[in-house]
Amino acid sequence: MGIGESIAAGLAEAGADLMLVSRRISENDEVVKACREAGRRVEVMQVDVANRAQVKEMVERTLAVLGRVDILFNNAGISKPAMLWNMTDEQWDDVISVNLKGTFNCIAEVAKPMMEQKSGSIINVTSSAGVLGTIGQVNYTAAKGGVLAMSRSCAKELAKYGVTVNTIAPMAETEMTKKIMTDPKIAPTYLARIPMGRFCKPDEIVPAVVFLCSDGSRYITGQLICIDGGMVMP
Ligand SMILES: NC(=O)c1ccc[n+]([C@@H]2O[C@H](COP(=O)([O-])OP(=O)(O)OC[C@H]3O[C@@H](n4cnc5c(N)ncnc54)[C@H](OP(=O)(O)O)[C@@H]3O)[C@@H](O)[C@H]2O)c1
Question: Does 1 have pLDDT greater than 90?
Answer without folding.
Answer: no
